[in-house]
Amino acid sequence: MKVTSVNIGRTGFISVGERRVASAIFKAPVAGRAAVQALGLAGDEQADLVVHGGLAKAVYAYPAEHYAFWRTVRAQAGVSAWNDALAPGSLGENLTLEGLPESEAWIGDVLRFPDCALAVSEPRLPCFKFNARMGFAQAASLMQQSGWCGYYLAVLLPGSIEAGETFRVEPGPREVRIDELFRARVPKSRARS
């Protein structure tokens, strides 16, 4: 398991229909080490602290394995070409991780990196800003249907993190997985079985 990218973003304004709303969903990879603090990565912001950020949702991780799906559906929606790359951070995540999908991430598991430790806390629920970020109106629905939501992490041990680092998972109580909690929180008609 490894970190393929560390991503941060600043709050700006995006167009959602005819409205302009504050968002920090546009994340970009950082070069070198990034400081990991109690409330997230240094230099990263969250525009809506009601649904993002805070101690339990300080860092958002997304599995790199799902990127091929999003490249394909964006091309099918006509918002990108078939061979267009999808840059790390495009799902709004702080950490693009390889090797830990939602079906293997349990609430309370600890991700132990060389210089910090993060605990799996809850799934991400997509909002209307995700549609704007992906460029088509069905993106949030596709995230709900697929269950490929990523997960929030709480900072247990501050430090720093860098792309290319490996990490190990220290099992927590192993009572509820991210994909199970996601399906429980998403309306039944939209969640994948």
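(ticket continues) Second input and output from the same batch:
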Amino acid sequence: MALADDLVTAVLLASTAFFVALALGLLIRYRQVSQKITASTDLGHDLWQALEQRMKKQDERILDVMARLDVIQSRALAAAAAQPPVSPPSPAPVLRPEPAKELVPGVMPEAPIVQQPESRVESHVSQAPSPEVQLDETQLRAISLLAESPKNTRQLTDAIGLSREHTARLMKALFEAGVVTRNATTKPFVYQLTDLGKSYLTPSSS
């Protein structure tokens, strides 16, 4: 449709240019002829009337062409206004991943401490070592810390200065030896000295 309108517009513009050029040619011709026939009044009058009629016809044709051009332009503008504007597609939302928590090599992430309505203290009684069995310095350090107050694995890890895995293995060995008890309803476990563990704090154990 748009191509056909453009073609018609081009044809009309070419016709208009042709008629304008023809009118100019007639005017030039008229001046040339009028100079030659100035001596003959009757002939000049007839020629003038003939040229005047031709000019009127050319003017009518030019006006008709201009009216057609106006109609075509108005139709093209109406068709363009009737078409809905094409909006660009909205960009898809960018999903930003949540920053990953930094993990320390060799240290497992700790679960939050969850308090249960009822505490369940586990104790382990096996071939418990007698106070005469010597414990290493790290074990004695853990026992002295528990003598102050019950502590969980995280607190012991910070106080002793070992890794969490090392501290967990240390406390497991003390638990299995019957030196400490642990509250299994908390994460991490809360450890407390047993009577056997307290015996290592007496001066006779040194």
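Agent notes: The chain is about 55% helix and 5% strand. The beta strands are 121-122, 151-152, 180-183, 190-193. Closing as not reproducible unless the customer responds.
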